[in-house]
Amino acid sequence: MEDTAVIVAFYVLTIVTLGSALMVATVRDLVHAVLFLVLSFVGVAGLYITLSADFVAVVQVLIYVGAISVLMLFAILLTPRASRDNASVPYAAPIGVLAGLLGAVIIFVALKTDWATAPGGNKFETTAAEIGKALLDPFVIPFEVASVLLVIAMLGAILLVRPGEGGEPG
Amino acid sequence: MIGLEHVLVVGALLFSIGLYVALSKRSAVGILMGIELMLNSVNLNLVGFARFVESPRPIDGQVFTVFVITVAAAEAAVALALAVSVYRLRESIDVDRLNILKW
């Protein structure tokens, strides 16, 4: 019974994620596209929960749904109405064919490869505590590098949008 | 029962939609949205591998996902700052009209 619920949730979340991703590609207004992108991020967070990755799901909601989408909305709203068009380039059809072919190849390879799957899957007791331990034991150098990267990105973003730097005064 | 193949197929479809968005949009913010969709599909694959593949440390896939999310946040902040800066310079974020480097 519980298994059936997980399967139904997986398919519903898949439809939500892929459907809103398609709406991002087709909808005309850029603000609506960002809102559909948020719905797609929420769907992916739900898929993480069905894969028993609860900490990653919470991080996804906090960073993607909370921060990145608000940043995108600010970037759109700071530029006037003329640049809110979500138009495609004239040669969009061959790009669609190319992306479809690439997706078909990836699906073919994913289904053909003999993955070394564990019987019944891996069971995690707690994910947040284990991720915290992994960040401090084998991944301490990448963890520090990530913090340096975040500081550099923040300084770069502030420097780029400061008025009177590198172009017309804002 | 949901298996690894189901997750990989969803990830592949999400990746190709993201690739289409990133290659076909005119606006710089639209291209960034496509890149975020592709990063999300990669994260979905990593979490799926962490859940299903035999490994002595299965949590590593989720740790990689946290790192990818961190880098994606930094990249989005810098890219959107660039978009605002380019808009101030050229009155547009249409990437087809960004041809000041052409001579």
The assembly state of the depicted protein chains is heterodimer
How much is the average pLDDT of chain B? 89
Q: Find the count of extended strands of chain B (DSSP E, 2+ residues).
A: 0
Counted beta strands of chain A:
0
Distance between the first and last residues' Cα of chain B: 58 Å
| Percent of residues in β-strands of chain A | under 5%
Helix content of chain A: over 70%
Q: What count of helical segments of chain B does DSSP give?
A: 3
The computed structural class of chain B is mainly alpha
Helix-strand pattern of chain B, N to C?
HHH
The low-confidence runs of chain B, each spanning 5 or more residues with pLDDT under 50, are none
Helix content of chain B: over 70%
Biggest β-sheet strands, sense, barrel of chain B = none
Report on this model:
The complex is a heterodimer of chains A (170) and B (103). Chain A is an all-alpha fold and 170 residues long. In chain A, 72% of the residues lie in helices and 0% in strands. The mean pLDDT of chain A is 88. Chain B is an all-alpha fold. Chain B has helices at residues 4-24, 28-52, 60-90. The relative contact order of chain B is 0.14. The mean pLDDT of chain B is 89.
